[in-house]
Design a protein that fits this description.
Layout (H helix, E strand, L loop, with lengths): L8 H37 L8 H9 L1 H18 L2 H20 L13 H32 L5 H27 L7 E3 L5 E3 L5 H13 L1 H12 L6 H6 L3 H12 L1 H17 L9 H16 L2 H6 L1 H8 L4 H26 L1 H22 L7 H15 L2 H11 L6 H27 L9 H25 L10 H9 L1
Helix pairs in contact: 1-4, 1-5, 1-6, 1-7, 1-8, 2-19, 3-4, 3-5, 3-19, 4-5, 4-7, 4-8, 5-6, 5-18, 5-19, 6-7, 6-15, 6-18, 10-11, 12-18, 12-19, 12-20, 14-15, 15-16, 15-17, 16-17, 16-18, 16-20, 19-20
Length: 491
């Protein structure tokens, strides 16, 4: 039973629930391409004024990530100048514009249903706009949650943001599946070194219409998020940093109770006086650790699997790839919950290390299945192990650490840099996956690419485990204000 002296858990959970909708949109927007990319590829293959190659398709499938880099880079500036709440409202509007524009990129300027290089550019611009929204939400949502949450609940509540991301991906997998319905993805034939054609037996509804509905479906969630975020309070730590102590104390009191709120506000104000807001006030190592957390989260290759899941399962010959993609989404949800309910008990480092090892095992399993003749079930299970291991480790825990590891006075700028690196490497991994996956060599043919790319991801997972063991401090149970002394002691 919560009393006024203890603060209101209901109030805390309600504002966190709104914030994690930003995570759901993040997951929805980044994974919607998984169901739409084949129809989109077939649509632009039909263009007469340019050749739609693997490389162009890889860039188009990943173009939202360019916006993610821009959005995350801007997040520090917007979060510190406008505040956390207005920045999230802006992100919601960008999601909405992107969803509608990706659904109907011909709007005003082009003939409906006629692919061209100009239409391709317009489509990518809309996807980049959505990516800016994702970049903002990916940095500011966990930051906001960490800044409103009590220290004993911070890891769990920030992990719920990752749960929302994965839930958003599962929702869009399911939505894509329902949109596809009785229709089928197009059959794309390779007719030259870099040339493709849509087989005449392909379902043209998917090529002309299906992918549009998939992108447009995001508009409904974007509207709900944008409206609800208008009703949440500003981050109390942001308010304290800009001198609005009375407002900060009011919000802290509702969350923690009056007595605890006063002590928390005093701690926040003391850290404001410790250092100026110069990025390297606490040394280079804190920035390096934050950046490398982001780099490893993407370099392990998870988003190549999430974005191209139906294509990967289709190549394994195990039934309907969309059904397997939905199953993978359910597995991801279950193992994200493992992190949510254990992060405050087991700590951050153990989950990251064991997750890295599990991912390495799964990636090597997929690689070996392309060298040794095995049942198709082996690579499917290996992909599931790889994905599940990420979901209880690098998926949520990276966001927890990035949201809490930086001192108050540099948090906005440092989070922006770390998350920008995350999206840069996300783009690198996602845009190179298709060309690497399709590489051919000698008698192995394209199995060489299948093997090489997963062996590479497995090796990176091992390096990531070593990095965590040697350099990441355990932050379980520490307040955000404790980060100031932690990094000053390491300087």
């Amino acid at each position: 039973m919560n009393t006024n002296d203890q603060g209101s858990k209901l109030y805390l959970f309600s504002i966190v629930a709104v914030a994690v909708l930003g995570g759901l949109l993040f997951g929805y927007d980044t994974a919607v391409i998984s169901g739409a990319e084949k129809g989109l590829q077939a649509f632009f293959i039909g263009a007469r004024d340019f050749v739609y190659t693997d490389t162009i398709h890889g860039i188009t499938s990943s173009s939202a990530l360019i916006g993610c880099i821009i959005g995350s880079a801007l997040s520090g500036f917007l979060a510190s100048r406008l505040g956390r709440k207005p920045s999230l409202v802006f992100a919601g509007l960008l999601f909405l514009v992107s969803a509608l524009g990706s659904y109907y990129p011909e709007f005003f300027f082009f003939t409906y249903g006629t692919p061209s290089v100009e239409l391709l550019i317009a489509f990518n611009i809309y996807r980049i706009i959505g990516g800016v929204g994702v970049g903002l939400a990916s940095a500011i949502c966990p930051m906001y949650i960490a800044e409103v949450a009590p220290s004993n609940l911070r890891g769990t509540l920030v992990s719920w943001n990752q749960f929302a991301i994965i839930f958003g991906q599962l929702v869009v997998y399911f939505v894509n599946f329902l949109i596809l319905g009785e229709h089928t993805n197009p059959v794309i034939e390779k007719i030259g070194e870099t040339l493709y054609a849509v087989h005449q037996s392909s379902d043209m509804w998917t090529v002309q219409t299906g992918w549009r509905y998939m992108f447009g479906s995001e508009a409904f969630i974007a509207v709900i998020f944008t409206i609800l975020v208008c009703f949440v309070p500003e981050s109390p730590r942001y308010l304290a940093l800009i001198g609005k102590d009375t407002k900060a104390l009011t919000i802290l009191s509702r969350i923690n109770g009056p007595k605890a709120a006063a002590a928390i506000l005093d701690a926040i104000k003391s850290t404001v006086q410790v250092k100026t807001e110069k990025l390297f006030s606490f040394g280079i190592m804190v920035i390096f650790v934050g950046v490398m957390l982001s780099v490893f989260q993407q370099a392990v290759g998870i988003n190549a699997v999430l974005y191209y899941a139906p294509r990967i399962f289709d190549s394994m010959g195990m039934g309907n790839p969309m059904v397997q993609t939905v199953i993978m989404g359910i597995v991801n949800i279950v193992f994200t919950l493992v992190a949510v309910f254990t992060v405050e008990r087991l700590g951050r480092k153990p989950l990251l290390i064991w997750g890295s090892i599990g991912m390495a095992v799964g990636a090597v399993g997929v690689a070996l299945s392309n060298i040794v003749t095995m049942s198709p079930l082996v690579p499917v299970v290996s992909i599931m192990v790889y994905s599940a291991s990420f979901m209880f480790s690098w998926g949520p825990i990276c966001w927890v650490l990035i949201s809490e590891i930086f001192p108050n006075t540099i948090r906005s700028a440092a989070v922006a840099i770390a998350v920008a690196f995350q999206w840069i490497f996300n783009f690198i991994v996602s845009s190179t996956f298709v060309p690497l996956y399709n590489m051919s060599m000698g008698d192995m043919g394209d199995k060489f690419g299948h093997c090489f790319v997963y062996a590479m991801y497995g090796a990176i997972c091992i390096i990531a485990a070593i990095f965590v063991y040697r350099l990441i401090p355990e932050t379980k149970g520490k307040s955000l204000e404790d980060m100031t002394q932690l990094w000053l002691s390491k300087k």
